[in-house]
Amino acid sequence: MAVNSSTRFAPPLHRTLPSRSPLAFFNQILSRPGFFTETPSPRLVSVRSQKPGPDGFGSRKSVSLEESEAWIGSSGSNSLSSSAIDFLTLCHSLKTTKRKGWINHGIKGPESIADHMYRMSLMALIAGDLPGVNRERCIKIAIVHDMAEAIVGDITPSDGVPKEEKSRREQAALNEMCEVLGGGMRAEEIKELWQEYENNSSLEANLVKDFDKVEMILQALEYEAEHGKVLDEFFLSTAGKFQTEIGKSWAAEINSRRKSRLENRHN
């Protein structure tokens, strides 16, 4: 599902990746075999204070190497914290952007993108153990799979955007979000998880793809009951498209409950 592209596209975010941490580089040098032939003793380094002395230069102050490292580490920590908060602030729109499929069907106060991803994560958490399936990875994929919609919005077939173009927009948006995060190991993991889901290239991706559809038809069932509507479109579009036994079983249960409700409604 998607939101109105005229209101949900965010302006491009431009943020350069942070330079390599001096402390990390220093530690890498120190860790090389043979760098020290014996245990090093604490050394003092000389630095100038910012306040100039009578000679026009800053006075010299000796500080230990450990103190110097602590100062560099603190600076790096502040940069990481800033990137993390920037990223999380960007993700705020996932909580406020409503899923367009429900809007198109006149549902008042519909779920947000984050609502949808959260219940998918719960599905991954409570699903029975499956041979060869990593539950933790399923939870991560569920959290990440619609993350790019923080920028591009929730694009649906009704928007007329070709599948390849939709994927291109979302890939670009995700890359941009990972730059905001500052790059690094976590950003690379997010990209990998998203690509795995996009390509449906693992057992975990197969399962989360099913959860995406199961969550949608469960929500449709709930909205039918709450709003007195018939939302056939969502059930028809997912019929026969489940890949896993859990997906098929849960979808069958939802459809069974819907059938019973509709029969009771007509009696």
Q: Taking Cα atoms only, what radius of gyration do you get, to the nearest Å?
A: 26 Å
Query: Which assembly state applies to the chains in this document?
Result: single chain
List the total number of helices: 13
**First and last CA, distance:** 33 Å
What's the pLDDT, averaged over the residues? 81
Helix vs. strand class: mainly alpha
Number of strands: 2
**Share of residues in strands:** 5-15%
Please state how the strands of the largest beta sheet are arranged side by side. Answer: 1-2
Low-pLDDT stretches are 2-63, 68-73
Shape verdict: globular
Helix content: 55-70%
| Elements, N to C (H/E) | HHEEHHHHHHHHHHH
Largest sheet: 2 strands, antiparallel
What does this structure look like?
- The model is unreliable at 2-63 and 68-73 (pLDDT under 50).
- The longest helix is centred in the N-terminal third of the chain and has 26 residues, at 65-90.
- Helix 7 packs across helix 10 and helix 7 (135-144) crosses helix 11.
- 62% of the residues lie in helices and 6% in strands.
- It contains 13 helices and 2 strands; from the N terminus they run H-H-E-E-H-H-H-H-H-H-H-H-H-H-H.
- A hairpin with a 5-residue loop joins strand 1 and strand 2 (58-64).
- It has 267 residues and is mainly α.
- A two-stranded antiparallel ribbon has the order 1-2.
- The chain has helices at residues 5-8, 22-30, 65-90, 92-96, 100-104, 113-126, 135-144, 149-152, 163-181, 185-199, 203-227, 232-238, 245-266, and strands at residues 44-52, 58-64.
